Amino acid sequence: MPKAAPDPIAKEEMATEKPVTPTEEQLEILEYNFCKVNKHPDPTTLCLIAAETGLSEEQTLKWFKQRLAEWRKSEGLPSQSGSVRD
Known about the structure:
It is found in: Nucleus. This protein has helices spanning about 10-15, 25-35, 45-55, 55-75. The chain is mostly helical. Helix 3 (about 45-55) crosses helix 4. It is globular, with a radius of gyration of 17 Å.
């Protein structure tokens, strides 16, 4: 008898991590890297930042994406890079 296909919703829930609020120390590291180093860290840099903060790479990437969106909004820039408005 064939096995039932895995439930796609259950798989998604397992793949995503619970939201984590960074500690003050983690925020200092994240903000320093965002403001002084690079708003768009490459995978290697992202891995190093994650290791330094103790957050997962997924959590670190999510933080950078959210922080970039906040920064773009504060600068009056389009929400998506590459978007041009007349």
